[in-house]
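quick one, two chains, predict together pls
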Amino acid sequence: MSAKCKSCGSCGMPMEKVEDFALGDSNHQYCQYCTDKKGKLLPYDKILAMNAKYYMESQGITADAANKLAVNLLKTQPAWKEIL
Amino acid sequence: MKKVAITRQEQKELTRSGLIQTATRLFAKNGIANTATADVAKAQKVSHGTVFVHFPTREDLILAVIDEFATKLSQEFGNCMQQSDLRKLLVFHLEVLAEYEDFYHRLISELAHLPPKVQSMVFMLNAAISWKLYESAKPLMESGHLKKMSQPFLFNTWIALVQYHVMNRELLSDKLPILKEKKNEMIDHFINLIQTQKGERK
């Protein structure tokens, strides 16, 4: 089996291509969506909203249910595990 | 034969990966809710404490098994998307699910009773598949080869077809994995449902 690709430490998205990583740097621990232009992690609320939207748009999940799914998803990620 | 020494770190990774393989097998055979971490330890011939060194909670072990399966899907889709071919995407999806079908059967059957973090991860995995499916279908909708529909309805129609077959696999097929047996029929049926007359002629 090929080497496991890295996943974002904030949202868990698999980072397959170099452009998926923050700043296009394959050593970065976060993805381009979870970081700002300087590669700094965005605030929790913003990332929570992005993930909830992703659930809603992809599967028609309601706003409340999508928010709950996103809260529980972020709890599994290294960036948020400690603070949640 | 000369023995090759392995480092402690390599041994640790081997143990972790062995525990994931064993857990996948036991979850598939006995069900996720019916498999205790002690069962995994016994089958892997390690102490119960060793399981907790790698996976502090039972939930972490279930998440690691899903993560392994998600990685496999992601790798297959990553390769497939370079060709952005809808049929190929569906083929890859069913082939990976067929490989994990015993586990997937348990996962979707027990999902409503599994921990919220596990549910979140499964729906996130579906979100990624939905996105790839829609990206691949969108140009064909714009060119009039596929019927126009929203991303959730496109994906939900597909996943409903897949999951119904997996949930009832012993009734619907003499041979397992059902996703291998019925692969072409399911894909042809789904494409027939979503394509227009212009798409049929192509």
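Helices of chain A lie at 44-59, 63-75, 78-81.
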